[in-house]
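Quick one, T. Sequence first:
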Amino acid sequence: ATQLFPCAFGVEGEVAVSLTAAAVPCEDTAMKPASNAEPAEAELMASAAEEAKRAEEGARAADGAIEDERKLLADEEGRLKAVGRAGAEAATEVIDGKQEAKEAEEAEEAEE
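Structure tokens:
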């Protein structure tokens, strides 16, 4: 049967479901080797491969941009924390200065 209808049998040797598939020459079926693919199919495959490559490059570029943004945000967070600490220290100094001035004033009033 494989000699009469070579395209009726798949790679595993299974019989094709339709007898019409067996009557069609091998070059007209989907089982033909890739080397016999029509130029339009080859062009389509090449186009799809190129599109996949561009998509992968775009994804890598997006990942790089996201990582750069994360670094910038981490740097900004560090600067803001430093400013916050400096502000807290300055506020503490002001409060301490006011407290010292108040204590000095109270001590002066107590002496009078």
